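Hello,

Our lab assistant flagged a job as stuck in the queue for most of the afternoon. It eventually completed. Since we weren't sure the result was trustworthy after the delay, we are filing this so someone can double-check. Below is the sequence as submitted and the structure that was eventually returned. Let us know if re-running is recommended.
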Amino acid sequence: MELIVQVENINGVLVTTSNRVAKELEVEHKNILQKIDTYIDKFGGLNFSHEFYIKSTFANR
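-- returned structure --
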């Protein structure tokens, strides 16, 4: 199975969105967010969380 997730280059860093990952994996977006939160807890909490999120133009729905 080949995964193809659209990425963007922002200041030399390749990034994507959790929505894109959820769509490609065919899972609910909330499950991706839960997994991200698990990684944040596991790898450093608040000191590390900024590495997962880049301010975007998406409105909170």
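-- support follow-up --
The delay was a queue issue, not a problem with the job. The result is valid. Strands lie at 8-10, 13-15. The helical segments are 18-25, 29-43, 46-49.
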